[in-house]
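Example record

The entry below shows one chain as it appears in the dataset: sequence first, then C-alpha coordinates.
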Amino acid sequence: MEDVIIIGAGISGLATAYFLRKQGWSPLLLEAGAKPGGKLQSRQEEGYLRDMGPNSLLLKGQIVPEWLRELRLEEDIVEANPLAKRRYILNRHRQPVALGPGVLFGGNLLSWRGRLRLLGEPFRAPRRVQDGEESVADFVRRRIGDEALTWLVDPFVSGVFAGNPTRLSVQATLPRLVALEQDGGSLLRGALRARKRKTPDTPKTRLISFREGLQVLPLRVASTLGAALRCNTPVDQLGNSDGIWQVSSGSQTWQSKRLILALPAGAAAKLLAPTDAALAHELDAIPYPAVGSLSIGFQRTQVEHPLDGFGMLIPRVMGLETLGVLFSSTLFPGRAPVDQVLLTAFIGGSQNDLAGRDDNDLLATVLREIGPLLGISGDPIFSRRQIWPKAIPQYEIGHLDRVRRIDALSARHPGLYFRANWREGVALGDCMEAACRFSQDTDWQH
Protein backbone atom coordinates (compact mmCIF):
# COMPACT_ATOMS: atom_id res chain seq x y z
CA MET A 1 0.00 0.00 0.00
CA GLU A 2 1.44 3.33 -1.12
CA ASP A 3 1.16 6.49 1.01
CA VAL A 4 0.08 8.62 -1.95
CA ILE A 5 0.01 7.94 -5.70
CA ILE A 6 0.46 10.88 -8.04
CA ILE A 7 -0.14 10.47 -11.78
CA GLY A 8 1.66 12.95 -14.04
CA ALA A 9 5.16 14.38 -13.61
CA GLY A 10 4.66 17.81 -15.08
CA ILE A 11 5.62 20.70 -12.82
CA SER A 12 2.41 20.30 -10.77
CA GLY A 13 3.01 16.61 -10.09
CA LEU A 14 6.71 17.09 -9.40
CA ALA A 15 6.13 19.99 -7.02
CA THR A 16 3.34 18.14 -5.24
CA ALA A 17 5.54 15.08 -4.74
CA TYR A 18 8.43 17.22 -3.50
CA PHE A 19 6.41 19.20 -0.98
CA LEU A 20 4.56 16.12 0.28
CA ARG A 21 7.91 14.48 1.00
CA LYS A 22 8.79 17.55 3.07
CA GLN A 23 5.66 16.89 5.11
CA GLY A 24 6.76 13.32 5.80
CA TRP A 25 4.80 11.47 3.11
CA SER A 26 6.26 8.90 0.70
CA PRO A 27 4.57 9.60 -2.64
CA LEU A 28 4.82 7.40 -5.72
CA LEU A 29 4.91 9.53 -8.88
CA LEU A 30 4.02 7.84 -12.18
CA GLU A 31 4.85 9.45 -15.53
CA ALA A 32 3.94 8.13 -18.98
CA GLY A 33 6.81 9.86 -20.77
CA ALA A 34 10.50 9.06 -20.84
CA LYS A 35 11.34 12.26 -18.95
CA PRO A 36 9.55 14.39 -16.36
CA GLY A 37 8.56 17.99 -16.92
CA GLY A 38 5.61 17.93 -19.29
CA LYS A 39 5.87 20.98 -21.55
CA LEU A 40 9.02 22.18 -19.75
CA GLN A 41 11.41 21.00 -22.43
CA SER A 42 14.67 22.57 -23.59
CA ARG A 43 17.00 21.66 -26.45
CA GLN A 44 20.58 22.60 -27.41
CA GLU A 45 20.94 22.43 -31.21
CA GLU A 46 23.50 23.95 -33.56
CA GLY A 47 24.54 26.46 -30.92
CA TYR A 48 20.95 27.53 -30.17
CA LEU A 49 19.20 26.93 -26.86
CA ARG A 50 15.44 26.79 -27.24
CA ASP A 51 12.62 26.25 -24.79
CA MET A 52 9.83 24.35 -26.48
CA GLY A 53 7.09 25.26 -23.99
CA PRO A 54 7.24 28.04 -21.38
CA ASN A 55 10.19 30.36 -21.97
CA SER A 56 10.60 32.12 -18.61
CA LEU A 57 9.69 31.90 -14.93
CA LEU A 58 8.41 34.89 -12.97
CA LEU A 59 9.66 34.79 -9.39
CA LYS A 60 7.40 36.55 -6.90
CA GLY A 61 6.63 36.02 -3.26
CA GLN A 62 8.65 33.63 -1.13
CA ILE A 63 7.58 30.06 -1.92
CA VAL A 64 9.21 29.57 -5.33
CA PRO A 65 12.48 31.46 -4.60
CA GLU A 66 12.88 29.43 -1.41
CA TRP A 67 12.20 26.23 -3.33
CA LEU A 68 14.91 27.08 -5.86
CA ARG A 69 17.33 27.63 -2.97
CA GLU A 70 16.42 24.22 -1.52
CA LEU A 71 17.03 22.67 -4.94
CA ARG A 72 20.42 24.42 -5.12
CA LEU A 73 19.46 26.03 -8.40
CA GLU A 74 20.44 29.58 -7.55
CA GLU A 75 23.81 29.26 -9.28
CA ASP A 76 22.07 28.08 -12.45
CA ILE A 77 19.67 31.05 -12.58
CA VAL A 78 19.97 33.44 -15.50
CA GLU A 79 18.36 36.82 -14.94
CA ALA A 80 16.42 38.38 -17.80
CA ASN A 81 18.12 41.19 -19.67
CA PRO A 82 16.99 44.56 -18.23
CA LEU A 83 15.79 45.32 -21.75
CA ALA A 84 13.04 42.74 -21.12
CA LYS A 85 11.08 45.51 -19.39
CA ARG A 86 10.48 46.93 -22.86
CA ARG A 87 7.55 45.23 -24.59
CA TYR A 88 6.71 45.95 -28.21
CA ILE A 89 3.25 45.86 -29.68
CA LEU A 90 2.15 46.30 -33.26
CA ASN A 91 0.21 49.52 -33.89
CA ARG A 92 -2.44 50.25 -36.50
CA HIS A 93 0.28 51.31 -38.96
CA ARG A 94 1.96 47.90 -38.61
CA GLN A 95 4.87 49.40 -36.71
CA PRO A 96 6.28 47.77 -33.56
CA VAL A 97 6.11 50.38 -30.79
CA ALA A 98 7.46 50.04 -27.27
CA LEU A 99 4.75 50.21 -24.63
CA GLY A 100 5.03 53.03 -22.14
CA PRO A 101 3.40 56.31 -21.09
CA GLY A 102 4.67 58.08 -24.20
CA VAL A 103 3.01 55.60 -26.54
CA LEU A 104 -0.19 55.28 -24.52
CA PHE A 105 -0.81 58.98 -24.09
CA GLY A 106 1.10 60.63 -26.91
CA GLY A 107 1.79 58.02 -29.60
CA ASN A 108 -0.32 56.57 -32.36
CA LEU A 109 -1.35 53.34 -30.64
CA LEU A 110 -4.58 54.85 -29.28
CA SER A 111 -6.68 57.69 -30.69
CA TRP A 112 -7.27 60.79 -28.58
CA ARG A 113 -10.70 59.38 -27.71
CA GLY A 114 -9.10 56.12 -26.63
CA ARG A 115 -6.56 57.97 -24.48
CA LEU A 116 -9.29 60.03 -22.80
CA ARG A 117 -11.23 56.86 -22.09
CA LEU A 118 -8.13 55.32 -20.52
CA LEU A 119 -7.44 58.41 -18.42
CA GLY A 120 -10.99 58.37 -17.09
CA GLU A 121 -10.59 54.92 -15.48
CA PRO A 122 -10.20 56.17 -11.86
CA PHE A 123 -13.54 57.99 -12.06
CA ARG A 124 -15.67 54.99 -13.01
CA ALA A 125 -17.61 53.18 -10.32
CA PRO A 126 -16.60 49.59 -9.63
CA ARG A 127 -18.85 46.69 -10.52
CA ARG A 128 -20.55 44.93 -7.64
CA VAL A 129 -19.26 41.45 -6.83
CA GLN A 130 -22.83 40.15 -6.66
CA ASP A 131 -23.34 41.07 -10.32
CA GLY A 132 -21.65 37.78 -11.21
CA GLU A 133 -18.98 36.63 -13.63
CA GLU A 134 -17.67 38.86 -16.38
CA SER A 135 -15.57 38.24 -19.47
CA VAL A 136 -12.11 39.78 -19.77
CA ALA A 137 -13.38 41.79 -22.75
CA ASP A 138 -16.40 43.19 -20.88
CA PHE A 139 -14.25 44.05 -17.85
CA VAL A 140 -11.70 45.92 -19.99
CA ARG A 141 -14.35 47.74 -22.02
CA ARG A 142 -16.05 48.85 -18.83
CA ARG A 143 -12.87 50.05 -17.13
CA ILE A 144 -10.67 51.42 -19.94
CA GLY A 145 -12.60 51.20 -23.21
CA ASP A 146 -12.81 49.40 -26.56
CA GLU A 147 -9.54 50.70 -27.98
CA ALA A 148 -7.55 49.54 -24.97
CA LEU A 149 -9.14 46.12 -25.41
CA THR A 150 -8.26 45.96 -29.10
CA TRP A 151 -4.71 47.32 -28.97
CA LEU A 152 -3.50 46.38 -25.48
CA VAL A 153 -5.43 43.60 -23.77
CA ASP A 154 -6.49 41.38 -26.67
CA PRO A 155 -2.89 40.90 -27.89
CA PHE A 156 -1.78 40.26 -24.30
CA VAL A 157 -4.49 37.65 -23.74
CA SER A 158 -3.90 35.90 -27.07
CA GLY A 159 -0.12 36.04 -26.66
CA VAL A 160 0.08 34.91 -23.03
CA PHE A 161 -2.99 32.70 -22.61
CA ALA A 162 -3.61 31.79 -26.28
CA GLY A 163 -7.16 32.81 -25.48
CA ASN A 164 -10.09 34.92 -26.62
CA PRO A 165 -10.94 37.77 -24.20
CA THR A 166 -14.62 37.64 -25.13
CA ARG A 167 -14.79 34.06 -23.79
CA LEU A 168 -12.34 34.09 -20.89
CA SER A 169 -13.58 34.82 -17.37
CA VAL A 170 -11.79 37.78 -15.81
CA GLN A 171 -12.46 36.39 -12.32
CA ALA A 172 -10.74 33.11 -13.22
CA THR A 173 -8.06 34.30 -15.65
CA LEU A 174 -7.02 37.66 -14.18
CA PRO A 175 -8.25 37.63 -10.56
CA ARG A 176 -5.67 40.23 -9.52
CA LEU A 177 -7.33 42.82 -11.78
CA VAL A 178 -10.69 42.14 -10.18
CA ALA A 179 -9.11 42.42 -6.73
CA LEU A 180 -7.56 45.79 -7.62
CA GLU A 181 -10.94 47.16 -8.68
CA GLN A 182 -12.69 45.86 -5.58
CA ASP A 183 -9.94 47.04 -3.24
CA GLY A 184 -9.50 50.55 -4.59
CA GLY A 185 -12.71 51.25 -6.46
CA SER A 186 -10.64 51.50 -9.64
CA LEU A 187 -7.62 49.77 -11.15
CA LEU A 188 -5.38 52.80 -10.58
CA ARG A 189 -6.35 53.35 -6.95
CA GLY A 190 -6.16 49.63 -6.28
CA ALA A 191 -2.65 49.49 -7.74
CA LEU A 192 -1.57 52.48 -5.64
CA ARG A 193 -2.92 50.84 -2.48
CA ALA A 194 -1.12 47.60 -3.30
CA ARG A 195 2.10 49.53 -3.83
CA LYS A 196 1.76 51.27 -0.47
CA ARG A 197 1.37 47.92 1.27
CA LYS A 198 4.77 46.78 0.06
CA THR A 199 7.54 46.90 2.64
CA PRO A 200 11.32 46.91 2.25
CA ASP A 201 11.16 43.17 2.97
CA THR A 202 8.74 42.45 0.11
CA PRO A 203 10.60 40.20 -2.36
CA LYS A 204 11.26 41.80 -5.72
CA THR A 205 9.67 40.25 -8.78
CA ARG A 206 12.28 38.68 -11.06
CA LEU A 207 12.07 37.16 -14.53
CA ILE A 208 14.47 34.25 -14.85
CA SER A 209 15.50 31.10 -16.67
CA PHE A 210 18.41 28.72 -16.21
CA ARG A 211 21.70 28.35 -18.06
CA GLU A 212 20.49 25.26 -19.90
CA GLY A 213 16.84 26.28 -20.18
CA LEU A 214 13.77 25.77 -18.02
CA GLN A 215 13.96 21.98 -18.26
CA VAL A 216 16.70 22.20 -15.63
CA LEU A 217 13.97 22.73 -13.02
CA PRO A 218 11.95 19.49 -13.50
CA LEU A 219 15.13 17.46 -13.95
CA ARG A 220 16.52 18.78 -10.68
CA VAL A 221 13.28 18.05 -8.82
CA ALA A 222 13.25 14.57 -10.33
CA SER A 223 16.77 13.94 -9.06
CA THR A 224 15.61 14.61 -5.49
CA LEU A 225 12.74 12.13 -5.80
CA GLY A 226 14.90 9.19 -6.85
CA ALA A 227 13.01 5.89 -7.10
CA ALA A 228 9.76 7.59 -6.08
CA LEU A 229 9.50 8.79 -9.70
CA ARG A 230 8.82 6.16 -12.34
CA CYS A 231 8.92 7.32 -15.95
CA ASN A 232 7.78 5.28 -18.96
CA THR A 233 4.85 4.17 -16.79
CA PRO A 234 1.59 5.11 -18.53
CA VAL A 235 -1.43 4.50 -16.33
CA ASP A 236 -4.12 2.69 -18.29
CA GLN A 237 -6.69 1.88 -15.63
CA LEU A 238 -8.06 3.20 -12.35
CA GLY A 239 -10.35 1.46 -9.94
CA ASN A 240 -11.66 1.92 -6.42
CA SER A 241 -12.78 -0.74 -3.99
CA ASP A 242 -13.75 -0.05 -0.38
CA GLY A 243 -11.96 3.30 -0.40
CA ILE A 244 -8.74 1.91 -1.88
CA TRP A 245 -7.57 3.16 -5.28
CA GLN A 246 -6.04 0.66 -7.69
CA VAL A 247 -3.71 2.17 -10.29
CA SER A 248 -2.57 -0.07 -13.14
CA SER A 249 0.11 0.27 -15.78
CA GLY A 250 0.37 -2.82 -17.94
CA SER A 251 0.88 -5.77 -15.62
CA GLN A 252 1.77 -3.57 -12.62
CA THR A 253 -0.78 -2.42 -10.05
CA TRP A 254 -0.39 -0.16 -7.02
CA GLN A 255 -2.84 0.65 -4.26
CA SER A 256 -3.37 3.69 -2.07
CA LYS A 257 -6.07 5.51 -0.12
CA ARG A 258 -4.91 8.76 -1.74
CA LEU A 259 -4.76 9.42 -5.46
CA ILE A 260 -3.67 12.75 -6.99
CA LEU A 261 -4.22 13.35 -10.71
CA ALA A 262 -1.66 15.93 -11.85
CA LEU A 263 -2.80 15.71 -15.46
CA PRO A 264 -4.40 17.87 -18.13
CA ALA A 265 -8.15 17.85 -17.65
CA GLY A 266 -8.83 15.69 -20.71
CA ALA A 267 -6.30 13.05 -19.66
CA ALA A 268 -7.80 12.94 -16.16
CA ALA A 269 -11.26 12.60 -17.70
CA LYS A 270 -10.19 9.60 -19.78
CA LEU A 271 -8.92 7.74 -16.72
CA LEU A 272 -11.97 8.59 -14.60
CA ALA A 273 -14.68 7.92 -17.20
CA PRO A 274 -15.28 4.26 -16.19
CA THR A 275 -15.55 5.31 -12.54
CA ASP A 276 -17.61 8.51 -12.81
CA ALA A 277 -18.96 9.63 -16.19
CA ALA A 278 -20.33 12.93 -14.82
CA LEU A 279 -16.99 13.92 -13.32
CA ALA A 280 -15.19 12.93 -16.51
CA HIS A 281 -17.64 15.02 -18.56
CA GLU A 282 -16.93 18.15 -16.51
CA LEU A 283 -13.19 17.68 -16.84
CA ASP A 284 -13.33 16.99 -20.55
CA ALA A 285 -15.32 20.19 -21.13
CA ILE A 286 -12.30 22.39 -20.27
CA PRO A 287 -10.95 23.59 -23.65
CA TYR A 288 -7.27 23.46 -24.60
CA PRO A 289 -6.40 25.11 -27.95
CA ALA A 290 -3.40 24.03 -30.00
CA VAL A 291 -0.34 26.30 -30.03
CA GLY A 292 2.77 26.10 -32.17
CA SER A 293 6.16 27.36 -30.97
CA LEU A 294 8.66 28.11 -33.74
CA SER A 295 12.32 28.75 -32.91
CA ILE A 296 13.94 30.68 -35.77
CA GLY A 297 17.60 31.74 -36.05
CA PHE A 298 19.14 34.43 -38.24
CA GLN A 299 22.42 36.18 -38.72
CA ARG A 300 22.21 39.43 -36.77
CA THR A 301 22.66 41.38 -39.99
CA GLN A 302 19.49 39.80 -41.41
CA VAL A 303 17.25 41.56 -38.86
CA GLU A 304 16.92 45.35 -38.97
CA HIS A 305 14.95 45.68 -35.74
CA PRO A 306 17.20 46.31 -32.71
CA LEU A 307 15.43 43.48 -30.83
CA ASP A 308 15.92 45.56 -27.70
CA GLY A 309 13.11 44.16 -25.62
CA PHE A 310 11.16 41.14 -24.43
CA GLY A 311 9.36 40.66 -27.72
CA MET A 312 6.40 41.82 -29.78
CA LEU A 313 2.67 41.14 -29.44
CA ILE A 314 0.30 41.34 -32.39
CA PRO A 315 -3.31 42.54 -31.99
CA ARG A 316 -5.82 40.13 -33.54
CA VAL A 317 -7.45 43.03 -35.36
CA MET A 318 -4.44 43.08 -37.71
CA GLY A 319 -5.64 39.81 -39.23
CA LEU A 320 -2.32 38.00 -38.73
CA GLU A 321 -2.06 34.43 -37.47
CA THR A 322 1.15 34.93 -35.51
CA LEU A 323 0.32 35.65 -31.88
CA GLY A 324 3.63 37.20 -30.97
CA VAL A 325 7.40 36.88 -31.07
CA LEU A 326 9.94 36.60 -28.25
CA PHE A 327 13.38 38.09 -28.79
CA SER A 328 14.86 35.02 -27.12
CA SER A 329 18.57 35.80 -27.61
CA THR A 330 17.99 39.26 -26.14
CA LEU A 331 15.89 38.00 -23.25
CA PHE A 332 18.51 35.57 -21.92
CA PRO A 333 22.21 35.35 -22.83
CA GLY A 334 23.65 32.31 -24.56
CA ARG A 335 20.56 31.46 -26.61
CA ALA A 336 22.24 31.91 -30.00
CA PRO A 337 25.76 31.71 -31.46
CA VAL A 338 27.84 34.88 -31.70
CA ASP A 339 26.52 37.36 -34.27
CA GLN A 340 23.26 35.42 -34.57
CA VAL A 341 19.82 35.92 -33.05
CA LEU A 342 17.05 33.58 -31.96
CA LEU A 343 13.38 34.48 -32.26
CA THR A 344 10.54 32.38 -30.84
CA ALA A 345 7.21 32.88 -32.61
CA PHE A 346 3.85 31.55 -31.47
CA ILE A 347 0.91 30.66 -33.66
CA GLY A 348 -2.48 29.08 -33.01
CA GLY A 349 -4.52 29.57 -29.86
CA SER A 350 -8.28 29.69 -29.48
CA GLN A 351 -8.64 32.35 -32.18
CA ASN A 352 -6.73 30.38 -34.84
CA ASP A 353 -6.99 26.80 -36.10
CA LEU A 354 -3.82 24.75 -36.63
CA ALA A 355 -5.63 21.63 -37.86
CA GLY A 356 -3.98 20.21 -40.97
CA ARG A 357 -1.09 22.68 -40.96
CA ASP A 358 2.34 21.18 -41.68
CA ASP A 359 5.74 22.49 -40.57
CA ASN A 360 6.58 24.24 -43.83
CA ASP A 361 3.20 25.99 -43.93
CA LEU A 362 3.52 27.28 -40.35
CA LEU A 363 7.08 28.50 -40.85
CA ALA A 364 6.20 30.19 -44.14
CA THR A 365 3.20 31.91 -42.52
CA VAL A 366 5.22 33.23 -39.59
CA LEU A 367 8.08 34.45 -41.78
CA ARG A 368 5.67 36.14 -44.18
CA GLU A 369 3.97 37.95 -41.31
CA ILE A 370 6.87 38.96 -39.05
CA GLY A 371 9.46 39.53 -41.79
CA PRO A 372 8.22 43.00 -42.80
CA LEU A 373 7.53 43.95 -39.16
CA LEU A 374 11.06 43.25 -37.93
CA GLY A 375 12.89 43.99 -41.17
CA ILE A 376 14.01 40.42 -41.78
CA SER A 377 15.83 39.63 -45.02
CA GLY A 378 16.69 36.22 -46.43
CA ASP A 379 15.93 32.76 -45.15
CA PRO A 380 16.56 31.62 -41.56
CA ILE A 381 19.71 29.65 -40.87
CA PHE A 382 17.97 27.65 -38.14
CA SER A 383 14.36 26.64 -37.56
CA ARG A 384 12.58 24.15 -35.35
CA ARG A 385 8.96 23.84 -34.34
CA GLN A 386 6.98 22.29 -31.50
CA ILE A 387 3.22 21.85 -31.76
CA TRP A 388 1.27 21.37 -28.55
CA PRO A 389 -2.15 20.00 -29.61
CA LYS A 390 -3.58 20.85 -26.18
CA ALA A 391 -1.47 23.73 -24.96
CA ILE A 392 -3.07 25.96 -22.32
CA PRO A 393 -6.35 25.39 -20.44
CA GLN A 394 -8.86 28.15 -21.07
CA TYR A 395 -10.61 29.63 -18.04
CA GLU A 396 -13.73 30.53 -19.97
CA ILE A 397 -16.96 31.97 -18.55
CA GLY A 398 -18.31 29.39 -16.14
CA HIS A 399 -14.89 27.92 -15.34
CA LEU A 400 -15.04 28.67 -11.62
CA ASP A 401 -18.48 27.06 -11.39
CA ARG A 402 -17.15 24.07 -13.31
CA VAL A 403 -14.26 23.69 -10.86
CA ARG A 404 -16.76 23.80 -7.98
CA ARG A 405 -18.82 21.08 -9.67
CA ILE A 406 -15.66 19.00 -10.18
CA ASP A 407 -14.83 19.39 -6.50
CA ALA A 408 -18.35 18.39 -5.48
CA LEU A 409 -18.34 15.34 -7.75
CA SER A 410 -14.85 14.26 -6.70
CA ALA A 411 -15.92 14.48 -3.05
CA ARG A 412 -17.98 11.36 -3.76
CA HIS A 413 -14.68 9.54 -4.18
CA PRO A 414 -12.70 9.81 -0.93
CA GLY A 415 -8.98 10.18 -1.44
CA LEU A 416 -9.22 11.67 -4.96
CA TYR A 417 -7.49 15.01 -5.60
CA PHE A 418 -6.37 17.11 -8.55
CA ARG A 419 -3.23 19.18 -9.03
CA ALA A 420 -2.94 20.83 -12.43
CA ASN A 421 -2.85 24.17 -14.20
CA TRP A 422 -6.57 24.04 -14.98
CA ARG A 423 -7.26 24.92 -11.34
CA GLU A 424 -5.37 27.78 -9.62
CA GLY A 425 -3.54 29.42 -12.51
CA VAL A 426 -1.71 28.49 -15.70
CA ALA A 427 1.62 30.14 -14.83
CA LEU A 428 4.52 27.99 -13.62
CA GLY A 429 4.80 29.92 -10.38
CA ASP A 430 1.07 29.52 -9.69
CA CYS A 431 1.36 25.73 -10.06
CA MET A 432 4.33 25.55 -7.69
CA GLU A 433 2.73 27.75 -5.04
CA ALA A 434 -0.52 25.79 -5.23
CA ALA A 435 1.38 22.51 -4.75
CA CYS A 436 3.11 23.88 -1.67
CA ARG A 437 -0.15 25.08 -0.12
CA PHE A 438 -1.85 21.77 -0.93
CA SER A 439 0.87 19.78 0.84
CA GLN A 440 0.35 21.84 4.00
CA ASP A 441 -3.45 21.55 3.98
CA THR A 442 -4.41 19.01 6.62
CA ASP A 443 -7.94 18.61 5.23
CA TRP A 444 -6.82 16.33 2.38
CA GLN A 445 -4.80 14.08 4.64
CA HIS A 446 -7.72 12.46 6.49
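Notes for this example: The chain has a mean pLDDT of 93. Residues 56 and 194 are 25 Å apart (CA to CA).
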